[in-house]
Amino acid sequence: MALPTLTPEQRADALKKAAAARTARKELRDAIARGDETIPAVLDRAKSDTIVGKTKVADLLKSLPGYGPAKVSALLEQTGIDASRRAAGLGDRQRQALLDALK
């Protein structure tokens, strides 16, 4: 499937939209790191908020203080969640397993 040909204006708009989404995801990760947001609260919004929903679960977990790549990988493996899974793609069982493992 070939990519659609975009006009320069459409391309500029798409680039602005992508940059805004990256900035919003960065602000979300920063809020988790500061403790302003919690993982349960963020996961509750995953289905309704597209920014949260499109963020990888591993990235959300790495934002937690004390959780680096090794600890996050072990936690995801323990709960049976693929490292590339996005927040909106978590099933009820996966979500509950993740929250139980974080307690």
Automatic annotation (TrEMBL):
Gene3D superfamilies membership: 1.10.8.50
Residue stretches making up the Integration host factor-like helix-two turn-helix domain: 35-100
Record-linked InterPro entries: IHF-like_H2TH (IPR055201), IHF_actinobact (IPR047806)
NCBIfam families per the UniProt record, alphabetical: actino_IHF
Protein name: Integration host factor
